[in-house]
Amino acid sequence: MRPLPLDVRRDLTSPSNGEVYLIACTIEHADLTTLRVISEGVNGVSHWNGLPVNYTFDGATYLGCPFEISLLTDNESPPRAKFAIFDADRAVGRYFIGLTQSPRLKIEILRASDFGAIDDTTNARTATGSPRRIYRASNLRLTSITGDPVSVSGEIKTYDPRSEPWPKQRAHQTLLPGIYRR
Amino acid sequence: MALPSFAFWPESVPWEADGSSYTEKPQGLKATFQPEAGVPIERPRVTLLAEEISYTSRPMTSEQFDALRDFWRITLKQGSLNMLRYHPRYSDGTIIVARFVEPPMISSSRGFDLLGVGIRLLKMPSAYD
């Protein structure tokens, strides 16, 4: 079980809680620039001056963009989840087109109260100090990516050790020609 | 302060609300869980709320209505772009960032060539306020 801090768990079950939770996703691929997006809760975004509110922390800016994501499953199978991001201008879809390897994904959940007021120049809230990560899942892979005119969706997977070839090396003729000599 | 520039409401078209038709409410975006017994568990879903504004405009002529409809259809790409306009509740020139929720509609006729036009807007939080 992935532990949630006790105070967060208490806040989540409190009848009145003023906290907004942020879901930050970092999508990386060796051939592409890193894509950082942040959603206020699941599929949520705020606007300031008519533009989505961005968030800056740890020296990087996360673009405010509503997306749907489920928490990773936590059972005897490798963790899995679904991911769908709004993509009306097809920018995200173009990002994924032509990839032969699945991009890496990191999910972090943060609290909006750890961020300051919006800067009108960048339309971003900047973290006051180092924001606390309530939940973090890294080393994930975004696979089975599909798109339609308004969204891009995919499946989140982790490395499955059961797919590891075993034994790692086999005594085949190419590797050990001597033992196949007649 | 670098503020985005959006198209401004047509100068020739009245922007004021007519009489008692004006309503304004924040979007109700709360995450709610209703337990079987006890009070609902609630928290906000987003940090900033847009506001829904609805009113019937002061009477406008057919020419003014055509200008407003063209503004919605052409300039705002069928209402999908934001605009700047005066706040219909204030007379001090307060500017807001807003978007049409639905096309401007003729809601009543006020005598010869005078139309009451129904306006529904989504007002975005902004530094203009």
Strand content of chain A: 35-45%
> What is the residue-averaged pLDDT of chain B?
90
| Percentage of residues in helical conformation of chain B | 10-25%
Report strand % of chain B.
Answer: 25-35%
Instruction: Specify Rg of chain A, calculated over alpha carbons.
Output: 21 Å
Helical content band of chain A: under 10%
Number of strands of chain A: 13
**Could you give the order of strands across the largest sheet of chain A?**
7-8-13-12-9-1-2-6-5-11-10
Mean pLDDT of chain A equals: 86
Largest interchain contact: A-B, 24 and 28 residues
Assembly type = heterodimer
DSSP, total strands of chain B: 9
Describe the sheet with the most strands of chain B: 7 strands, mixed
Low-confidence stretches of chain B: none
Global shape of chain A: elongated
Order of helices and strands of chain A: HEEEEEEEEHEEEEE
Describe the model.
The complex is a heterodimer of chains A (182) and B (129). Chain A is mostly beta strands. Helix content of chain A is 8%, strand content 43%. Chain A has two helices and 13 strands. In chain A, strands 7-8-13-12-9-1-2-6-5-11-10 form an eleven-stranded mixed beta sheet. In chain A, strands 3-4 form a two-stranded antiparallel ribbon. The longest helix of chain A has 8 residues, at 6-13. The relative contact order of chain A is 0.19. The two termini of chain B are 14 Å apart. The longest helix of chain B has 14 residues, at 62-75. In chain B, strand 3 (30-33) and strand 4 (41-44) form a beta hairpin. Chain A binds chain B through residues 12-20, 40-41, 44-51, 53, 112, 120-121, 125, and chain B through 1-4, 6, 29, 31, 38-50, 82, 97, 99, 124-128.
Topology, please?
The complex is a heterodimer of chains A (182) and B (129).
Chain A: H1 6-13, E1 21-29, E2 32-40, E3 47-48, E4 51-52, E5 54-57, E6 60-64, E7 67-69, E8 80-86, H2 91-96, E9 104-111, E10 115-119, E11 124-127, E12 135-147, E13 151-158
Parallel strand pairs in A: 2-6, 5-11
Antiparallel strand pairs in A: 1-2, 1-9, 3-4, 5-6, 7-8, 8-13, 9-12, 10-11, 12-13
Chain B: E1 7-8, E2 23-26, E3 30-33, E4 41-44, E5 51-56, H1 62-75, E6 83-86, E7 95-100, E8 105-109, E9 115-124
Parallel strand pairs in B: 1-6
Antiparallel strand pairs in B: 2-5, 3-4, 5-9, 6-7, 7-9, 8-9
